[in-house]
Structures are given as structure tokens and as C-alpha cells.
Amino acid sequence: MRRAPRWLVEATAWALGLVLLVALGATQAIEEPREVVEAATPAMREPLREQIVPPAPTPVPKPTPKPKAPVRAAAQPDLDVESVLGPPPGPQHDPRPARTAAPADRYAFLVGVQDYRRPTVDTIGSRKDVQYIRSMLLGAGWKAENIRMVVDGQATGRAIRDGIGWLASTSRPGQTFSLFHYSGHVKQHGGVSDSLWPVDRDFVRDTQVADLLSRVQGRMWVDIAGCEGASFLDGVPSSRVLFSGSSKAVEKSYEYPAWGMSVWTGLVFDLSLRQGQADADKDGRTTLGEALRYSQYYAQAITLGQRPHGRQTPQFTGAPDLGWTLADPPA
């Protein structure tokens, strides 16, 4: 693999860091042969890509100017992204929650289905999505015993229902924070409804997902990384529940083979929350609001011009107090 130039590593400013894009591949997370397109996407730091070895220093070091490369789309890098999407999101006020959940009162249930049973086509990054999120939570002070994760063969329909039930059983109003994340295929049922797609095809219908999640008390974040992600929006978001989906209910979502992750999870959890690329006000603290707005914009920028299904437009709604991080989630 060709090594990236040094300026690509040094371009850490959020407005520029994600626009220096490498020619790799993005592919759809749908049940058909994968369509790989030429991609120009944000450069992610370790551990998600090859280690970059800087060149030997010159006797008289000179500052390296940051190249002013335009934002480029994945499938059609010649597109003028800002003429379509406008400028990237700038600083906004994200109110902080009134209360914060202590580490012992934070619970997460993570589902990632990558190795499906035939004839269902595998995904590329669902397993790494949830593994990465788990590592992020642990790094933010969450307790390992409060994080449940099912992947691949473990991720049956029953396991998903039981896991959400576990979240409900551990939750308490005004005290706990719960996170439910799903990464995998979404099954469409004739345009009438959609389902989470377990490994055993024991589909969990959107209405059942909403019913199960409604039993979780306290504050909660529901995050769906899959095609038609926002199809699970009905009945979920509220003043205490934040919902985010990787694409509209009529759109496909994409994965990024070079990252081994979905576009959405890579943007939200690595570039935004881990690297701080979404820190629009430059205060050294990336709020979830900053992460979601940033990732919504750049998910579209990356997939703009994607064919035949078009871009993915992430959606988020619900609890408005988004001035928190994984280290201080609301209660």
C-alpha cells in the first residue's frame, strides 16, 4: 500500500482534516453483491490504518503549509461538495444535561452482525464497529461488566430482544444512561416496515424495537448503523431519548473497507469523538452534538454522487441537550 504524505497526517484541523481524502473504496451494506466505488474519504489515524513513518528531519526544518484541498465526494471526486451541501457545520451551543450518570449507572448493549449465513451477503465492518465502540466506552470510564456485546453467530433475534430487555431491567429514571447500538443489515418488508437483521433471520420488526426500547427508563441513546437506518425512528426519540440513524428511511448506508468499519461509525466514534475533528468551537471538548452534526455533513460529502443508490443522509433527533461526551453522559 502506498504510504500517505506527511501533510495528510498533520492536517488535523477539522475543516481540513477530513477533506484530504485517499482513493480507497466504499461499499453498500445491502443484501446483494457489493458494489465497490472509487472513494475519497477522510484519513483516519491509528489503529484504523497503516502506520505512517515520517521522513527524516531536514537540517533546517521549515513549516509545512496545510494544503487547501476541496471537499471531495467518494464516487465522484470532481463534484463541488460545498456547492451542494453548503459549508461544514460551525460552532453551535449544545446545552449540558442537568445530571450526569455515574460510571456504575451507564449501560450499553452493542450488536454487530458481519458474518451472515448464506444466502445473506456479509457486511464489511459491523464487527469492528461494535468492538471499537466498546473500546471507546471503556476509555471513557464505563465499566466492562455494564457493557454487553453480541457479534456474528451470537447476534440472534432472541439475543437482540434479550439484550434490550437487559437494558430495561438495569435502567432507572433520573439515574441511568443506556446506549443501544446496532450495526448490520436492515430488512425491508415490502415498503411497509423494516427489521433489524439478526444472523438467524429471526427479524426484529421496527414496531417491536420501539416497544422494547420504550421500556428502558432514564436517559438513552439509540444508534442504528444500517441501510434505511432512520426507519426505526418512529416511537423512539423523546425529550430523554436521542435517536440517530446512519441514513434516511429511503436511503442506503455505506461501509468503508479501508477502515473495516461503516462510514457512520467511523465518523462519529473515531474522527469525531476520539480524534476531536468535530470540535467546532475549538474548546478541546467534542460534544455529542458536534459529533453528530459533523458526521451528518461528512457522511453526505463522502457518499455524494454514489451510484446507483445515491448519498446517505444521517438523521438524529430527540433529547436536545447534546452538550455531553461519552465520559459524562446524561442521567
- Beta strands, count: 13
Question: Which bin fits the share of residues in helices?
Answer: 10-25%
Average pLDDT taken over every residue: 83
Individual helix count: 8
Assign the CATH topology.
Answer: Rossmann fold
Strand order of the largest sheet: 4-3-5-9-10-13
Major β-sheet profile: 6 strands, mixed
**Span between termini:** 46 Å
- CATH architecture title: 3-Layer(aba) Sandwich
* Global geometry: globular
Low-confidence regions: 1-70
Relative strand content: 15-25%
Q: How would you spell out the order of helices and strands?
A: HHEEHEHEHEEEEHEEEEHHE
Structural class: alpha/beta
Rg (C-alpha, Å):
19 Å
The number of distinct structural domains comes to 1
CATH class: Alpha Beta
In short:
With 331 residues, the chain is of the alpha/beta class.
Walkthrough of the structure:
- This protein has 331 residues and is α/β, with parallel strands linked by helices.
- It has helices spanning 6-10, 14-17, 81-85, 126-139, 157-170, 206-214, 263-274, 288-303, and strands at residues 22-28, 37-41, 106-112, 147-151, 177-183, 186-189, 193-196, 204-205, 219-225, 241-245, 254-256, 261-262, 315-318.
- It has a single domain (1-324), classed as Rossmann fold (3-Layer(aba) Sandwich), CATH 3.40.50.1460.
- A 6-stranded mixed sheet has the order 4-3-5-9-10-13, sandwiched between helices.
- Strand 7 (193-196) and strand 8 (204-205) form a beta hairpin.
- The protein starts with 5 loop residues before the first helix and ends in a 13-residue tail after the last strand.
